[in-house]
Amino acid sequence: MKKVGIIGWRGMVGSVLISRMIEEGDFNRIEASFFSTSQSGQSGPLINEIQYTLKDALSAESLSEMDIIISAQGGDYTKEIRPKLESLNWKGYWIDAASAKRMDDDSVIILDPVNKAHIDQSIDRGVKNYIGGNCTVSLMLMGVGSLFQHDLIEWMSSMTYQAASGGGAKHMKELLSQMSVIGDEYEKIQDSNILDIDDKMSSLLRGNDLDAKNFGVPLALNIIPWIDSSLDNGQTREEWKAMSEANKILNLEQQIPIDGTCVRIGALRSHSQALTIKLKRNIPLDEIESILKSNSEWVEFVDNNPESTREKLNPRYVSGTLKTTVGRVRKMNLGDEYLNLFTCGDQLLWGAAEPLRRMMNILL
Ligand code: HSE
Questions:
Q1: Could you report how far apart the first and last alpha carbons of the chain are, in Å?
Q2: What's this model's pTM, rounded to 2 decimal places?
Q3: Which residues have any ligand 1 atom within 6 Å of their CB?
Q4: Do the bridges between strand 153-161 and strand 258-259 make them parallel or antiparallel, or are there none, so unpaired?
C-alpha cells in the first residue's frame, strides 16, 4: 500500500477532507501517517480503530518516506517544506490545498471532473505537484465546465456571492456572533416601528458593538465587495484568479477572458455566482441545457422558474453536499449570444477538500 502523509488535518478544510476520506473508505486503500508542526509524538486521530501517533511535519526526512503528501496546512508551510523535499530529491507526489504553488509551471490545478485528461497527461509527463484550485473558480467550472469544453465561450463575467467560510473558521464564527448580537437587539425592539428598527440596526452596523476584527466591517446585514489583496490594475487577487486559474485548469492555449467582481456575503459555507457568458455563436437554450447536464453527475440543472430557483439555487440547498446547482439559464436582452446563468456549490467540498482526496485516488 502507498504511504500517504497528511498535514493540516485538524483545520477546517483538513477536517472536511478526513471526514470525506472516512466516508469513501479511502483509509482502507492507504498506509496513512498524520503529521503535525507542533505535536509530534502525541496522539493523532483514531480512524477505523487505528490510533495514529503524530509525526513531525517539519522534518523533511520523515516526510520524504511518504509516496504521497496531502497538505491543508497553508501556503507558508508549503513554501517552507516543499523546497526541502526537493533538495532531498524526493520523488513522491505533493497534493496541496494552498495557493502557494498553484500557478507554478511545475504544478497542475486539480479538478478532475473537468480536467481529468490533463491530470492523466501530467502524471505521464512526471509532474509531481497537484494543487487544489481557488474555491470560486473550481465551483464555477463544476457548474459550467462543459460549456468551456464544447468551446462555446468567447468571454465570461462572473459576479460572486462568497460565503464567510472562504475566509476561514474564525470568519464563520464572527458572522454568527454578529448575527447573534443583532438578534438580541432585535428582540428588545421588535414591536417598534420598522423605521425605528432600521435606525437601530444601522447604528449597530456603524458602531463598535459588533465583532468585526476578521472581516474589518460587519458582514451580517451587509456585503463586502472586496476579497483578498489588491492588484495594480484595480482587481482584487480573488478576481484575478478567475481567469488565470480557470485557463490553467482547462489547459487552454488561447486564453478565454474572465473577469467580474467578487463579493463576500453572509452565507456560511457555500459560494454562489452570477455568470454572463458571451457565446461564440447563437446556440439554442435546449442545447445549452443538455450540455450543462452532461457536465458531470454532480451538476443539478434547475429550471428557470421561481419555485425551483428558490428551492435549489442557493447555499441552503447545496451546503454539505457535492451538488453543484446551475439555473437561471436564459438568453439576455443584450443579444442571442449572451447567456445568463447562476450557480451554487459547497465551498469546503468541491471548493476545497474533494479534489484533494480524488487526486490521491487517481494517483493510487
Ligand atoms: N479565496 C476564497 C474566499 C477561499 O475567500 O472565498 C477559497 O479559495
A1: 9
A2: 0.96
A3: 134-135, 162, 166-167, 227, 238, 351
A4: parallel
